[in-house]
Amino acid sequence: MVTIRLEKKWMVMLAALMMAVGFLFSTTQAHAAAGNEAEAGEPPALEQPDRGDTTETPAKPADAAEQGKAAAKAAAGEQSVTLKASAQQVAPGQTFTVKYGFADVTQNVYAQEITVEYDPAVMEYVADSAKTLQAGVTIINDLSAQAPGKLHIILASLGAEHPVTGTGDILELGFKAAAPDKDTDGVVRMTQAVLSNDKGEEFSMENTSVTVKIKSGSGILGDVNGDGKVSVGDLAMIAAKYGLDSNSPNWNEVKHLDLDGSGAIDIGDLSIVAKQMIEQP
């Protein structure tokens, strides 16, 4: 009986030992298989805790040409030269002025070379009418000997305390309308504007222009009925349309009576005719 119990005990222990060996063998095989997979491919990524989307999307580069234009525009400060006429519309023989100036110029300018062109068949430059509008700035060259149709003007500041910069009118020129056979656009063009600062650095500005409508007629200011003289008949025509302006529905039919180009038929136009009546031979 004792022998049989001992044999049963050893059999149980042997069975347990075999189960343990089998478990160890299967575990070893599983580790070996995982190692082979790791050698054959990339190791599995470790799972990171979720900290939100911190990925930065790279900015799309702007077009190089557009960047260059933007930089140049910023450096120039939107600076320009300007031409402004004293009237939008003039009658034959009527004088008007054109002013040259700066708009948002960022440099301190001490010298300027400009060229103004116009059609001498449509208007004429009024001799000795050119004048500077800023203290300490003068016209250096003589304009009286220049050919009709073009004015070459050189301006200079008289000392360090007289720079020209920013926005403002600098020069005024006088013109007189001719007597075209039909309504004509009189255009005054700035075809050159070269500026320089106190370091001698030169920079050219873009060309610009201004247009004045020149009415057809006899060439005698105030002769609105076209009979070759200024008389009470012209005065009556203007008086009958007194008070009409550019907002009136029939303005296109009567605007030739607006002799001073103010946009309204008013006392200024009557005064022009009255003066001509008194002064004419």
Automatic annotation (TrEMBL):
Span of domain Dockerin: 217-281
Q: Which residues form the signal peptide?
A: 1-32
Q: Where is this region: Disordered?
A: 34-71
Q: Which InterPro entries does the record cross-reference, listed alphabetically?
A: CBM2/CBM3_carb-bd_dom_sf, Cohesin_dom, Dockerin_1_rpt, Dockerin_dom, Dockerin_dom_sf, EF_Hand_1_Ca_BS
Record field: compositional bias (Low complexity): 34-47, 59-71
Q: Name one Pfam family in it.
A: Dockerin_1
Q: Which residues form a coiled coil?
A: none
Give the residue spans that cross the bilayer.
Answer: none
Alphabetized, the UniProt keywords read: Signal
What is the name attached to this protein's record? Cohesin domain-containing protein
Q: Which organism is it from?
A: Paenibacillus chibensis
